[in-house]
Amino acid sequence: MELGMLNFTKIREKYRIPEGVRLIYPAKADRPCSPPLGHIAMMADAFECGMRLPLHPFFRAILHSYNLCHYQLSLNFWTQSMETWLLWQEVSLSYPMSLYVFHTLVELNKCAKRDKEPKEEVKDSYYLTPRGSHSPIITGHPSPIKHWMSQWLCVAGD
Known about the structure:
about 15% strand; globular; 4 helices
């Protein structure tokens, strides 16, 4: 998803984003680590990986439990967390997933630094893997999106 080509009307329709959620392009002076007051920075490609707005309370709780902001999360985070949550919904017999169960099923890992990554954008980024030595339950994920950290937007509202 190319940020310069984003049509927020089409994005709202495709991902069912309510009008109360404001989407804006970052100004030249804005940085993901310091978006405009009242906004958060999000990768545009996170929508393709399962992230939705407004953010479900369980996913807000996950971010809070890890003490991370949206921009510190790789696209894998959204794919793995959404798949884990949806799979739990299917097999849990209506028992809601707790943070304890989520943390038992997946493990947070720090992404390796690359020389080409913008150093001022974010200190560290993180991804999820299944906890333990077992194979992933869900396979066949799409290839990583190159330059995903450079494609971001500002979001505000409920």
